[in-house]
Each structure stands twice: as C-alpha cells, then as structure tokens.
Specification:
This protein is an alpha/beta fold. The radius of gyration is 27 Å and the shape is globular. It has three domains: about 1-60 and about 75-110, no CATH class; about 60-75 and about 110-425, Glycogen Phosphorylase B (Rossmann fold), CATH 3.40.50; about 465-790, Rossmann fold (3-Layer(aba) Sandwich), CATH 3.40.50. The strands form six sheets. Strands 1, 4, 7, 8, 11, 12, 13, 14, 18 and 19 form a ten-stranded mixed sheet that branches. The protein has a six-stranded parallel sheet with strand order 22-21-20-23-24-25, with helices on both faces. Helix 9 packs across helix 11 (about 325-335). The protein is built from 34 helices and 25 strands. The relative contact order is 0.10. The chain binds ligand 26W. Ligand 26W binds next to helix 6. Ligand 26W binds near residues 117, 318, 460 and 652. InterPro entries: Glycg_phsphrylas (IPR011833), Glyco_trans_35 (IPR000811), Pyridoxal_P_attach_site (IPR035090). Keywords: Allosteric enzyme, Carbohydrate metabolism, Cytoplasm, Glycosyltransferase, Pyridoxal phosphate, Transferase. Its EC number is 2.4.1.1. It is found in: Cytoplasm.
C-alpha cells in the first residue's frame, strides 16, 4: 500500500504544480490545482501499475477482459485517492496549503461513456476486479463525446454535446506504439493452397485503432489494472496525400472525418435498437482492436497459443461486443492457422455473455446486406457458425423446421446477435434471479432447453467503495464506530450493524446523518434552481433513465392526485414530501421526453401554488450523471423502484439507495425481489402486479385500461388533467401520454397498479411518522446491503464463469 506522510505529500504537490504549470502554487487557478493533483496521483499510481503488469506476466494467471461498449466511470480523483489509501493525508496536506480538496474534486468532468445501468455496472466491476486483485481489464471505446449533457429549457429536455475532453483527461495515457489496424469492407478471395483454404482480404479500408490506457486502482492492495479505450485515427500511409498534391483537400478531409467518426459519439439510446452502420462499425472496431492486442500481448509474453483458452477469458457485456466471437475465430483460423473445430472449442471456452434486457425492441439484429458489405470475412464466419448450428438443430429436432428457424442465427434477412452470443459462449447469465428465470422460461427457453448448463444467474452489485465510503463519509464513519472497519473489505460484515437497529441513540444518529446529507442536497437544489426545500420533509426519489417501463408516469400521476386532494382539502394530514426526479431520455424517444416535460410542468404548478407548496414540492434535477447520483442517493428517504414487474432486468440504484439507508417502495421486479428477501417484508414496501399476473395479463389480453378509468371519478380527473390545460396551456402537449394510457391500453399497467401504489405510499407516510420504526427500517436496510456489493458479484463471475484467480488472496 502506498504510504506517504503529509509533509512529503505537500512537497511533492508543490513540485508537481511548478513542473506542469511553470508558476507558483499561489498564482494558480483552482483548475490548475486540480490538474497538478491529478497528475501527482497518476505518478503515484504509475509504479504500482508497472509492478502489477510485471506480476501478471511472471505468474501467468488467467487474464480476464471485460468487453463493453460503455464504461460509465464518473469522476476518478476521489476514488483513486480512496483506493490508494491517501485521501485523508491528501486532504490534510491541501488544508495546510489553504486548498479545499472537495472543491478540486468537483472540478473534474464526469467520464460519462455510458447510457445508464449497463455502463455503470461495467465501472463497478472494474473497481471490484482490481480491489479483489483479479487480473481483469476493461476494453471499450474512447468516445470523443460522451453521453449528452441535459439542459431543461422551457420544461423540456435539450441535448448538448458532452465535450468531456476539452480540457484533457489526466487519467489516460495514449499508447501510439500499441496501435492496431482494423479492416472494413473490401473483398475476400478464397484460395486453395497446400490442401488448405486461405482467405485473402483485399481492397479494404484500414483504420488505425489507437489505445488510451487508464489505470484502475484496487483498494489498498497495490493492484492497478487497465481500462483500454480505443480511438479511431486515419492510417498515415492510407491518408491520400496525393489528393493534397492535386489540391483535393476536401477528399482527404472526408476520409479523415469518416475514420474519426467511428469513435466520435456514444449512441445515447438504451431502449430502441437502430440498425445504424456506424454502430456496427464501432462494435467491430473495438472488438477487433481489443482481441488483436490481447493476442499480440499473449504471444509476446511467450504464451503458447494452444493454451490460449486456459489463459484468457473474454466477457461480452450484452450483445454489443458479440462480434468478438467471429473475430476470434478469424484470428485463430486465418492468422494462427488453427482448424475450425479447435478454434471453435477455444472460442467457446474463452467467451461468456451477459444479457441485460428482455425488451424485444432493444435486441440487436443486423441486416445481412449491411453486415456483409462492411465485414465480408466476418460474415463468412458467422454464416458457417449458423450453418453448423442449424445442422445440429436439425438432427435434434427432426422435421421441426419452425423451431430451427426460430433459433437460427441468420434468419429473415437479419443476423441475430443474441443467438450468436449464446451459441458462441460457454456461459450465458442474467443479472438478477427473476431476470434469469424469465430468460430461461420465456425469452431464451429454446436455447435453455438445448444448453441448460450454459445458463446461470449473477445478481448485479455496486461498489460500496464509491457508493457508500466515498459518497457517504458520515455514515461510513458511524458504521466504523459501531462495528469496526472490517466491512470496508468484507461488506457483508455490515450485517453486524443489525443488532443496533433497535437502539434509540443509533436511530437518532442515523437520522442526523441523513439530515446533514439532505441539507447538502437542499443547498445544491437551491443553488441550481433557486427553490427552497424543507429538509424535514420526506425526500422521495426516482432517479434513472426515463422510460415508459420504469413508470415515472405512475409516480407523476400520484403526485397529481395528491395535488388534487390537497386543493380539495387543505387540511389533509400528510407528512410533507419533496418529490425528486432526475434522468435523461433518449433524444428520439418522444414519449419519454414528454414525460420529462410533464414532470417539470407539474413541478412548476405545484411549487408555485401557495395552497400546497408547504406540504409538497416537486424537483426535476437537470443532467443526471454519476456525480449527481453521489449527492442525491445519500440524501434519500424513499427509493422509488416501480418498474412494471418482469421489465427491469435488475436495477442497481435500488442497491445504492438501500446501502445509504433509504426505504424502498417497489414492485417485485428485478433485484427488488432479492432486496425484499434480504430485509424481510417489514422493511420494504411492496406493491403492484406479480410476475405471474403480468405474464397472464399479457397472454390473455384480459386488461382494458379504459374500463378502469371510466368507472373511477378520481382516476378520470387525473387522466383528464393531462389534456384539459391544467398543467399546460397547449392541451395537446401530453396527448401522447394520455393516449398511451387510454387509447393504446397502457402497456405497462400504470392504471392497473395505481391504487396499489397509492396504498403503498400511504403506508410510507404512516411508517415515517413513527420515527423510531422508520430509522429501524433504515438500519436494517444498511445492515443487509453488503451482499449487493459488486465484490460478491465479481467473485461469482470469477469462480463460476471465468475460472480466474486472485493475485494475492484466495477468493473466499
Ligand atoms: C439500443 C441498444 C441498447 C440496448 C440495451 C443499448 C443499451 C442497452 C442496455 C442493455 C440497457 C441497460 O443498461 N440495461 C440495464 O442493465 C442494468 C445492469 O445489468 C440493469 O440493472 C437494468 O435493469 C437494465 O435495464
């Protein structure tokens, strides 16, 4: 572990400042100070990084590569200081120099290279792999523009490019010497020489993939793993300088632009798959560069290619990196000279795949013509995989053509990436128990029947280092005081806190800590929006991507209902509540955008209505991102996890809230089920349709939302207020929401679950009034949250899927 005293740190820091800025510390701006600190921390990390790589080389343990289109890391200065074990020293040293560490940390841009859950999970996994000393690295794309920044203008979402690199990125190191060439398009000629088929790829467009490496620091264990992100650059010898000579500058620039566009933007969509050729290019680009570099590294470390599948594991995060399967086949066959069967066996042993969604509209499939043109050799390999797979199926299901067709990889003009991922991997996992069961029973039942042993569950987790220790230092201190600090490295030890749940003093302390966190959030809200909120009100929070199935609409309708009731009866006895929302909508997802506008307009109306605004307020916080979540979550009293049962694969914010002592109101969906099992029914508030009821209603079609609305005055009033000018003068503004609920029969059972949700909310109100009972529930939630640390999840992946071992300890 890095050991450094305050005085040395001060000296190092001063020196670093002068070195990079060429002026004295007291002449520097805050940003200069941040840069110097980041740069110093990076120096500290550098030696450990080199040592870790040496150790990996020496003991030749299996290396895991986590391939993901998204890594949503957030800020890194704070977590690196924490994991190095020097945060307190650094804070004290900077204090001496009159510099506020928190302020510098807040200057760092979020690294927002992901849409939401899947990308943040990848980031938590990197942290856990390094902290458990598992040789596990990330491989992805260095998008020039991350997930867009959200502005709320006239109550609606406006997208602004996220130019996160404009001031540079202190954590990355460009490795020009490790660049690889990725080939697109062209022709493949098949030659038959010496009894072997040879595939000659010609006339292709070559793109240079340049890696930028970022250190992933383990928690106080000297381990530094690598996140390698690829950036696309023109190949210098491909750059058509002759065009310059002819003065055809435009043509040369077009070539450059088309290459650079590959790593230009992150697709801001997590809901509807779109068959854009640029996205397919992105996928092949990073997967090909990643695998080439892994194999190059393996061979240069004297690895025996025949043992490749014992020495590396490649994980595919959703179907997005599935091309890793045919690309590895290509490398093994075309470049390494292995036969099909050996290559297929190795590829299968190496690859594993996680599914993160059952939403049919999000499943990736590529039109054959587009695929073939862009990736001719890869297409041939996919065709061969499909041919062999289908012939296996035909033998198994004699005469059942429909079944074979349904399961085929290539069908009806499309390549189905989930099918390719399942067939090419030795492991397929879901991300929560319920989700895995649904995959097995419904979505992927045919495949489960064929390969029952491939399927397994790995319930998601979150890194408690970021989401508790770093985000909630006050609660962390208090836990240490009560149960010691073993939970820092063994998060399930938090269970020792449960015995204090009944202790009045402990309950009071928990309440005080929550109040301080609420004050911090209230200050931020005041600063951002000029709205004063009452910190003794219940902070009722729903923060996540805006999506019909996540049912922000349900939350909003009950707020509208409460508003109606308060107007009717100003003396209505409720505990004051502040409803807090945050989340981004995909730019082209109009319904979700309308939901954002509705929340903001309901907020305007309520916050400005003096008849009610002492009791309720509604806040929509702009630009949801990791660093904002770190402020909101520790301040939450109530965690809203209200998706239509069966639709949320797992959810991970549910775990973050629980770990910070919020009480969950939830449907029995995703990991909520496991949270309920952990804390018991008395420490969570459950409502809504069950899995069976939902599946049954979908199957029988026995649900008509209009029938419920028409027979219910209260509901009718709320629904009508969407289109009668109550919240927006333009009566058509929320017509889409209205029509979804009424005309199109409410696909996500908002109306059906409405009263059940209201009852649950009334229960929350009652529970909160009993101060002691409420704090007891919070304490139990904290105590049981350790199991949802991503350390547990990663141990399960390492032992159950990757067959990888730790560098330093055994995987207990
Ligand atoms: C349109 C292409 C696309 C489709 C799906 C892009 C991204 C996705 C992701 C799979 C969406 C996603 O982030 N899923 C979430 O993954 C989390 C981590 O496992 C789960 O906790 C969430 O329930 C799931 O919605």
């Amino acid at each position: 572990m890095l050991s450094i005293d305050k005085e040395t740190f001060k000296k190092d820091y001063r020196q670093k400042f002068i070195e990079i800025h060429g002026k004295d510390l007291d002449e520097g701006t805050d940003y200069n100070k941040y840069e110097a600190l980041g740069s110093l921390v990076r120096d500290y990390v550098a030696k450990m990084w080199i040592d870790t790589n040496k150790k990996y080389k020496e003991n030749s343990k299996k290396q895991v590569y986590y391939f993901s289109m998204e890594f949503l890391l957030g800020r890194l200065l704070g977590s690196n200081l924490l994991n190095l074990g020097i945060r307190d020293t650094c804070k004290a040293a900077l204090d001496d120099l009159g510099i506020d560490l928190d302020k510098l940390e807040n200057l760092e841009e979020d690294q927002g290279l992901g849409n939401g859950g899947l990308g943040r999970l990848a980031a938590c996994f990197l942290d856990s792999m390094a902290s458990l000393s598992i040789p596990g690295h990330g491989c992805g794309i260095r998008y020039k523009y991350g997930f867009f920044s959200q502005k709320i203008i006239n109550d609606s979402q406006v997208e602004v490019p996220d130019d996160w690199l404009k001031r540079g990125n202190i954590w990355e190191i460009k490795k020009t010497d490790k660049a690889r060439v990725v080939k697109f398009g062209g022709d493949v000629r098949v030659d038959y020489t010496d009894g072997n088929l040879k595939f000659n790829h010609t006339n292709y467009d070559a793109v240079l993939a340049v890696p930028y490496d970022m250190p992933i620091v383990g928690y106080k264990n000297n381990v530094v793993n690598t996140l390698r992100l690829w950036s696309a650059e023109p190949l210098s010898n491909e750059f058509d300088f002759s065009s310059f000579n002819r003065g055809d500058f435009k043509k040369a620039m077009e070539y450059r632009d088309s290459v650079e566009s590959i790593s230009q933007i992150l697709y801001p969509d997590d809901s509807f798959y779109e068959g854009k050729v640029l996205r397919l290019k992105q996928q092949y680009f990073f997967v090909s560069a990643g695998l080439q570099s892994i194999i190059h590294h393996f061979k240069s470390a004297q690895g025996n290619m025949k043992e490749l599948d014992e020495k590396i594991a490649v994980h595919i995060n959703d179907t997005h990196p599935t091309l890793a399967i045919p690309e590895l086949m290509r490398i093994l066959i075309d470049e390494e000279g292995f036969g099909w069967d050996t290559s297929w066996r190795m590829t299968n042993n190496i690859m594993s795949y996680t599914n993160h969604t059952i939403m049919a509209e999000a499943l990736e499939k590529w039109p054959i013509e587009m695929f073939k043109k862009l990736l001719p050799r890869i297409f041939m390999i996919v065709q061969e995989i499909d041919k062999r797979f289908c012939s296996e199926l035909k033998n198994k299901y004699v005469g059942q053509w429909d079944k074979v067709r349904k399961m085929a990889i290539i069908d009806n003009g499309y390549i189905k990436m989930a099918h390719l991922a399942i067939v090419g991997s030795h492991s397929v996992n879901g991300v929560a128990k319920l989700h895995t069961e649904i995959l097995k029973k419904q979505e992927m039942s045919d495949f489960y029947y064929c390969y029952p042993n491939k399927f397994n569950n790995k319930t998601n987790g979150i890194t408690h280092r970021r989401w508790l220790i770093s985000a909630n230092p006050k609660l962390t201190m208090f836990l240490k005081e009560k149960i010691g600090d073993s939970f820092i490295t063994h998060p399930t030890d938090m269970i020792n806190f449960e015995k204090f749940a009944h202790n009045i003093e402990v309950q009071n302390r928990l309440r005080d800590i929550k109040l301080e966190n609420k004050r911090k959030l209230a200050d931020l809200i005041y600063k951002d929006k000029g709205i004063n909120i009452d910190i003794s009100s219940i902070f009722d929070v729903q923060i996540k991507r805006i999506h019909a199935y996540k049912r922000q609409t349900l939350n909003c309708l009950r707020i509208m209902d409460l508003y109606n009731r308060l107007i009717e009866n100003p003396n209505l006895d409720i505990v004051p509540r502040t409803f807090i929302f945050a989340g981004k909508s995909a730019p082209g997802y109009y319904l979700a955008k309308d939901i954002i506008t509705l929340i903001n307009m309901v907020a305007d109306k309520i916050n400005n209505d003096d008849r009610v605004n002492k009791k309720i307020k509604v806040i929509f916080m702009e630009n949801y991102r990791v660093s904002l979540a770190e402020v909101i979550i520790p301040a939450a009293d109530v965690s809203e996890q209200i998706s239509t049962t069966t639709k949320e694969a797992s959810g991970t914010s549910n775990m973050k809230f629980m770990m910070n002592g919020a009480v969950t109101i939830a449907t029995l969906d995703g990991a909520n089920v496991e949270i309920r099992d952990e804390v018991g029914d008395e420490n969570i508030v459950i409502f809504g349709l069950t899995e069976k009821q939902v599946l049954n209603l979908y199957k029988t079609g026995g649900y008509v939302s209009q029938n419920i609305i028409n027979n219910d005055v209260r509901l009718k009033k709320i629904i009508n207020s969407l289109v009668d000018g109550t919240y927006c003068k333009d009566k058509n503004k929320f017509k889409s929401i209205y029509e979804n609920l009424v005309t199109y029969n409410d696909e996500f059972f908002v109306i059906k679950d409405f009263y059940s949700y209201l009852e649950a909310q009334e229960k929350i109100d009652r529970l909160y009034r009993d101060k002691s009972k409420w704090q007891r529930m919070c304490a139990v939630n904290i105590a049981h949250s350790g199991i949802f640390s991503s350390d547990r999840t990663i141990r399960e992946y390492a032992t159950g899927i990757w067959g990888s071992k730790c560098l330093y300890k055994n995987l207990e």
